[in-house]
C-alpha cells in the first residue's frame, strides 16, 4: 500500500520539469549511513554544485566528467547549464557530452535514470555512466558500453574524449581505511600520469582522484572539486599542492563560514577551481582568490533551480564567478571575503 501511494503521488510528475537531483536526495535517505560513510558518499546540494559548474563549464558544447558521480547531481545540473549556454543543442548531444563513473551499483543506476529522465522519449537516450572503480579505467580503453539501437544484446563501446571539464565530490575516506595495496596502485597511476608526483601513503582517498581525473583534461581545461579541506593544512597535502602549482592556474579556493557543504560529515570542506596551464610564467603570475562565504550560497544566489528560473539563476552564478575572478585586491562585504595571493607567493 505504501508503494502504491508513492507511485500515485509521483504519477503526474514530469521529471523533465525537475531540474534538480531529487533522486540524490531520495538516495541519501534510503542508503544507510554506515554504507555511505564506508564509501565516503556525501550528497552534494544544488547550490555548491552550480557554483562549481559555473566556474568550469564555459560553453554549451563542453565535454565533462564526474569520476565519482553518485546519483548524478553534477551531471544533471551540468545538463541544464550546457542547455542554458546553447539552447540549440539537442538532448542527444547534451547526453553524449556528459560522463560519469561510480563504484557502487545503486547510485550508478540512479545517475543513469536521472540523466535519461531529462528527455525520456528520445531513442538515443542512454547516458554515459560507467559502473566501476574509477582507478580501473584506462584512457585507451572504452569508458562504457551502450546498447545498440535495434539490436538486443549488442553493445557499442564508447571512448572518453579529451575533456573540457572535470567536476565532482570524490569520496571522503580517511587514509586509515584505504588498503595499502590500493594506495600503492592509485599512487602509481598518478605518478605515471604526472612524472615527479609522489603522493604519500598517508593521503586520504580523495587526493588520488585529483591527478587521476585531471590527466584526462584538455590543455586549458577546468577542474572543480568539493573535498575535505585538510589537504591545505596537513603534511600529506604538500605533494598535492606542489602538483597543482606545477601544472595549473589555481583560480579560486572557496569555503563557507555559514553552512556545511557535507551535511552529515564532520569535516571542513572547500571547493578548489583549477585550470590546466603548461606556461610556467603564466602560472606564477596567476592570482589565487581565497574566498570565504559569510552567507549561505542559497541566499547569495537568491534564485531557486526551477525551470522558469534557470536562465536567471545561471546569470546570477556567472555574475558571481566574474565578481570573484575579477577581484584584484583583498575585499570583504556581507556576502564574502576574498584574499588575493599570487601563485608565485604560494610556490615560495
Brief overview:
By secondary structure, the protein is an alpha/beta fold. It contains 14 helices and twelve strands. Helix 4 (46-56) packs across helix 5 (73-85), helix 4 crosses helix 13 and helix 8 (180-193) packs parallel to helix 9.
Structure description:
This protein has helices spanning 2-10, 22-30, 33-38, 46-56, 73-85, 91-96, 105-116, 180-193, 205-214, 237-247, 280-285, 297-301, 310-325, 343-347, and strands at residues 64-66, 98-102, 128-131, 144-147, 155-158, 163-168, 217-228, 248-256, 269-276, 287-293, 331-332, 336-342. It is of the alpha/beta class and 348 residues long. The strands form 2 sheets. The protein has a 10-stranded mixed sheet with strand order 3-2-1-6-7-9-8-10-12-11, with helices on both faces. Strands 4-5 form a two-stranded antiparallel sheet. The longest helix is centred in the last third of the chain and has 16 residues, at 310-325. It is globular, with a radius of gyration of 20 Å.
Please, what is the average pLDDT?
Answer: 89
Number of helices: 14
Helicity range of the residues?
Answer: 25-40%
The chain-level structural class is alpha/beta
Strand content of the residues, in percent?
15-25%
Distance from first to last alpha carbon: 65 Å
Q: Provide the gyration radius in Å.
A: 20 Å
Q: Biggest β-sheet: count, sense, barrel?
A: 10 strands, mixed
Shape: globular
Please state how the strands of the largest beta sheet are arranged side by side.
Answer: 3-2-1-6-7-9-8-10-12-11
